[in-house]
Predict the 3D structure of the following.
Amino acid sequence: MSRPKKAAACCGDAPMTKHQCILAAAQEVFLEAGYAAASMDAVAARANVSKATIYAHFENKRALFEAMISARCEATFSDLGVPEAYTDARQALLELALHFLNLIVAPEALAIHRVVLAEAPRLPEVGEAFYAAGPIRAHARIGALFSDLTRRGLMAVPDCDTSLVTDLFLGMLKSDIHTRALLNLPPNERSIQSIADAAVDMLMARYGAKA
Amino acid sequence: MSRPKKAAACCGDAPMTKHQCILAAAQEVFLEAGYAAASMDAVAARANVSKATIYAHFENKRALFEAMISARCEATFSDLGVPEAYTDARQALLELALHFLNLIVAPEALAIHRVVLAEAPRLPEVGEAFYAAGPIRAHARIGALFSDLTRRGLMAVPDCDTSLVTDLFLGMLKSDIHTRALLNLPPNERSIQSIADAAVDMLMARYGAKA
DNA sequence: GTCTATAAGAGGATAGAC
DNA sequence: GTCTATCCTCTTATAGAC
């Protein structure tokens, strides 16, 4: 058979194939050290395999990196929060806002963001994969919520403005919180909660339904 | 004398000391390749000096990198736009907004941002220097404008909200434009101008002076 | 301060046995 | 597919002459 066989768990509890083992090790090493500073030796050691085995599964360092990024982007950004039943625009927006903020300041998301930005000029596909898995999905999810709230008469966002307003809203949420988190600086005194509150306020002042 | 002497122009037209020459070369090499992938050989070649000369001026690769980042952050983010005389809040905000957006999407600012984010977890001082030279200054500048506009009765931002509103406004401006630019993706169909317009609209809907 | 030359080692990738 | 051992290049940093 051409597919790799199962292997005893080499990095954790669940049994993983060598392929998965290598990807998991690559994630740790690349996200900790950055692409260039990460060595194939370090990945091999972390995965408990030989370097030659890595090259049997991935053409070269770059291919391993791209495969890892692709897999992690999907996993990390797949869940932006389930749509709940709601009758109040503020509550629905707040819930999604908090979910979004907690997602983008999670350590793994930040580490991926950093390494993707760093290599984007030299590895365009990596930047595109990240953008499609993260920002595009978030935009679509929030935009859909605005459309739904407007259809129900709970907001008043014209169709032609939905995309623009979504961008502004997500920008407000990220505000300085995201920048500081990416720079590895301690969180601001203002909590995620108060930023989310203020962003929703600003949004509703302009696009709330006329009572 | 202990200070390095003047040297013939080695990288451009104006005469530069070897020290400046090395810093200029380091900027190009580090910003193009990233910290780890950049080599001291490449810097030496670009500066037209020997590697040994670099080590006479800077203790090691890391020190050279930090010196370069420090110098470039100061130079790149020093000018966020001169305060003009204004009688209209919208016009003043728009002017500053456009200046800010054009500054953060400039190729050099993007390159610095990428490399600083990439190394921030391992070189904390670099992240702090960048934050102090860029985001802190922008925040102070915009916050001062809000205060001034409010004092003149052209806006209504309570003192206790100034910092928070500044964060939200800057976040709206960056919106998706900054993320896309950092990822080296082609600019969005929406122009910088329309994002700035919309952000000012949203802001004035909530914090405009009551007419 | 500046150079040439080189030490000392890390890192990507492969050969060949099993 | 997997391993051990190795090739060879590139890289940081320094020694020693001027």
In short: Chain B has two domains: 8-58, 65-207. Residues 162-182 of chain B form the longest helix (21 residues).
